[in-house]
Each structure stands twice: as C-alpha cells, then as structure tokens.
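Researcher: We plan to redesign the surface later, but first we want a full-length starting point. Tokens attached.
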C-alpha cells in the first residue's frame, strides 16, 4: 500500500496533498456521532491522504492516479452528513472538493456552479446577481446551509428548508444537470440531465465525482422567521397540517416545523422568552405578503406569536435563523447539552385535506413519556404533502432503539434508519439498480466510498 500511495503522490505532483495525522483524523469524520450505534461501527476508520484539487482538470488527475493505483477514494464536502457518508471505511484517499467553489452562470430560473461551493456562498451569489431584479434564491437547503457544500447536499442529502414549498431534491426540475468525473485510468467527464440525475443523486459519492451542477432558482423572498406557541403539541400539529395544505394557494412559507415544549430548555440560551416551556412551538419562514393570513390561522388554532423577524433583523439581535431550529438542528440543540439523546427519522402517512393522524402522535407520546420527545417537519414531494418525524430518543441501547423503530413501523410510519451507513438500509431497503448500473460505468473498479452500498459486489462475486 505504501508503494501505491507513493506512486499516487508522484502522479498528482502540484496538487495540494497531506498526510498530517490531525488533518486525516478531522477529514475522516462527519456527524455520525449523532448515533451511538454508528459511533461504534465507524470508530478508528481513517483515510491515508487528503487531496484538495481546485479545478476539474486536477480532479481528473486525482481520479486517474487512484484508478491506476487501485486506491479507494472518498469525496468530502463539508463533512456534515449524519450517517458516516464520508467516513472512509477502507482508508485510501480523501478528495476534499471544497476547492471547486465557482459560480459559473446565473440565469433567470437557474444557476450552474461547481460542486464544492458552500451553500451559503451560492445563496449569496444568486441573491446578488443582477439576472433578476431583487435577486433569486435556492429552492431548498439543509439546515447546515452555512457549512455544507452543494455537491454534498446532492450526493448525500434529501431536502430540508424550502421542501414545504418546493418539494425534495429528487423532484423533477429541482436539479437539472449533474456533471461527474469517472474513476478510471483514463477518466471521462459525463453529464447527466433530467431524470438521469437520479443515477447519482443520493448515491453517497459511490459512482462518480460530481464537479458541476445546474439547479433551479426562484425570485428571492425576504422570509419572516416566525415562532408561535400553541397550548398543546396536537394544536401545533393541527396548525402545521392546515398551513402545509394551504402553501401555494392562500399561504406561502419556506419552513414549517413543530417542536415539542420539552425542547424548550435546550433553546433557552438562544431564544429565551420566545420559546418558554409552557407552549409547543411552530418555527416557520413566512412570506411577508401573507403574514396577515398566517397570523389569522395561528390565532384560530390558539397560537400566540413570540417572534417575527427577517434574517438581517435576527442577525442584528444575535438570534439564530428559524431553519437552525429545524430538521437535524433540533437534535443538535439537545445534544449540545445532553449527549444521552439520539434521534429517529420517520414519515407519517398523510391524508389529503386532513394531514397526519394526530391521535396517533398523541398515543406515541403517551406510550413513550419522556423517553421520546416529538418534533415534526412539514414538507411536500411530487406526490403531495408529507410530514417527517425527527423525534429525540433517549438512548438505552441498540436493542431498545430498534424496539422503538419496530413500534413506529407497526404504527404505520415509514422509518428511514439513521443508525446505519449503507444507502439502502437508511432508505427504502431496496437496491437502486440504475445507480449500480451507473457505478459499473463510472467506477468499474469499485473504488469509490467502498462499503456504502450493498448493491455493489466485487467482480469475482457477481453472478
Ligand atoms: P458531506 O457530508 O461532505 O458528504 C455527503 C456525501 O456526499 C458523502 O457520501 C460524500 O462522499 C458525498 N459527496 C460530497 N461531495 C461530493 C461530490 N462532489 N461528488 C460525489 N460525492 C460527493 N440533510 C438534509 O438533506 N436536509 C437537512 O435539512 C439536513 N439538516 C442537517 C442538520 C444538521 C445539524 C446536520 C449535522 C446534518 C444535516 N443534514 C441535512 C445532513 C447534511 O448536512 C446535508 O445533507 C449536507 O448537505 C451534506 O453536505 P456536505 O457538504 O457536508 O456533504
């Protein structure tokens, strides 16, 4: 291995490269520590070299050298994934993609950019670009917007802030082009368009190095970051369901998140009286043009407003944006103070016109007491409205965790297991054959992020 690493280094001379142990340690980790189960499985896994190309030509040189030396390669963006997506299970080369950070073209309705740009920087660039008066905005971003890359979001993410208005990444039109470099002795550059982007989206960097993307944009809105408190969690959920159904007709919002009052102590230093423990909260980002109607619906459900500020106003007061109180950030808020928590990712069946079964959520709250603390995200996908549960779960061991998962499944919830590192086990439990077929083209030696897909068998083991 040492000889091959040396030959690799010689072949990429001139490209930033390091084997500094502290850097390797840092670049071999992500946010998998959310899961005590993954912590054990991933302990000690480390890459052997970090390379940081800054152009596509340099990425091609790295890919060629890896293929020739048969070295595993793991692409890394911001390293904010929750499932060990960019932890190198078999060592090898870590390709830090953050040097490819250019915005290449902004048009009304779309942006072409490199994959390593931070989502925050991309958002700033499309806001400021004169293609559309008043600027444009991304359709969605993870709550890690400020530290995650756009390529990492497409390769490892799902949806997030903006999903309640614009659907999930996978929905047609949201991502219209993905350009990848293959991991071959003579790498090729392949552009995927339209439905073909699914071959690489959410493939955890197992089938090609994404270098460029084209994403849809909409005219920018100066969203109002809003908190309202409700007399019960059921009331907060009822408001959330009704508001979600109304997005696109009478209401417009970029985020709707219901958070159980038992989260309040974890938010105290940040929000104080805006989220005291005597109410269940809905965090939202609301279009100022419909704030009146939003407040009317809030009052109908017994809600009272405790915050309504734009992002610049929040910053001036030292407050966090509403999206940092949502998605996986709620768990982070709790984990910062108490490491005994972990979480689950669930989906509740949605009945059009009614929303989710709130009595079921109440029964689950009664069943688990303080062992599980509720949090629901509201969104939509190509099929309609949807609600994701991201409850905090007190960790009493793997056996108990999986008992709770099975009980949620028996309740009719879909569980996306966030305590595993393979694509399939964390998702729909089925192998995406289109992604595997594309891997045969883009990574014929099976070197990319090895171990992250159950669908890939080494040549000798294939039927
Ligand atoms: P990384 O973690 O660096 O990489 C993710 C995966 O993509 C890895 O498998 C990596 O190998 C691969 N990859 C990265 N770049 C490339 C590339 N150029 N080519 C090929 N493969 C590549 N996720 C959501 O979807 N929605 C959320 O709302 C959300 N909220 C979060 C909140 C918190 C507090 C945390 C810790 C995580 C959250 N996540 C969320 C997960 C994660 O932050 C996002 O998916 C994020 O966009 C990942 O980007 P990244 O640059 O950090 O990717």
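Model: Full-length starting sequence:
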């Amino acid at each position: 291995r040492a000889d091959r690493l040396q030959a690799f280094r010689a072949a990429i001379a001139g490209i930033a490269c390091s084997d500094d142990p502290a850097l390797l340690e840092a670049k071999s980790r992500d946010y998998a520590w959310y899961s005590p189960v993954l912590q054990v499985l991933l302990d000690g896994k480390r890459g052997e070299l970090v390379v940081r190309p800054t152009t596509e030509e340099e990425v091609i040189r790295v890919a060629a050298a890896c293929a020739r030396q048969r070295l595993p390669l793991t692409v890394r963006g911001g390293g904010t994934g929750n499932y060990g997506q960019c932890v190198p299970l078999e060592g090898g080369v870590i390709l830090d993609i953050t040097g490819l950070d250019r915005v290449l073209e902004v048009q009304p309705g779309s942006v072409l950019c490199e994959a390593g740009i931070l989502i925050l920087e991309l958002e700033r660039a499309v806001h400021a670009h004169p293609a559309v008066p008043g600027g444009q905005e991304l359709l969605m971003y993870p709550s890690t917007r400020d530290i995650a890359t756009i390529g990492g979001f497409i390769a490892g993410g799902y949806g997030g802030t903006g999903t309640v208005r614009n659907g999930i990444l996978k929905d047609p039109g949201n991502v219209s082009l993905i350009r990848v470099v293959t991991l071959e002795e003579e790498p090729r550059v392949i552009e995927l368009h339209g439905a073909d982007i699914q071959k690489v989206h959410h493939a955890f960097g197992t089938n090609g190095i994404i270098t460029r993307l084209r994403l849809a944009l909409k005219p920018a809105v100066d969203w109002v970051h809003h908190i309202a408190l409700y007399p019960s969690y059921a009331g907060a959920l009822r408001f959330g369901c009704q508001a979600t159904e109304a997005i696109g007709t009478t209401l417009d919002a970029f985020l709707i998140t219901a958070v159980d009052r038992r989260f309040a102590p974890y938010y105290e230093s940040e929000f104080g009286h805006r989220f005291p423990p005597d109410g269940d909260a809905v965090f939202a980002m609301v279009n100022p043009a419909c704030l009146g109607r939003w407040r009317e619906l809030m009052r109908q459900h017994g809600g009272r407003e405790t915050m309504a500020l734009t992002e610049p106003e929040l910053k001036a007061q030292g407050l966090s944006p509403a999206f940092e109180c949502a998605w996986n950030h709620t768990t982070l808020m709790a984990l910062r103070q108490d490491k005994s928590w972990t979480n689950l990712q669930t989906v509740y069946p949605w009945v059009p016109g009614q929303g989710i079964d709130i009595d079921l959520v109440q029964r689950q709250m009664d069943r688990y007491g303080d062992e599980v603390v509720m949090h629901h995200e509201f969104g939509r996908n190509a099929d309609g409205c949807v609600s994701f549960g991201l409850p905090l779960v007190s960790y009493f061991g793997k056996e108990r965790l999986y008992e709770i998962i099975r009980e949620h499944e028996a309740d009719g919830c879909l569980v996306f297991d966030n305590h595993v590192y393979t694509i399939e086990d964390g998702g729909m439990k089925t192998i995406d054959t289109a992604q595997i077929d594309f891997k045969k083209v883009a990574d014929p030696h099976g070197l990319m992020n090895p171990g992250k897909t159950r669908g890939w068998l080494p040549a000798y083991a294939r039927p």
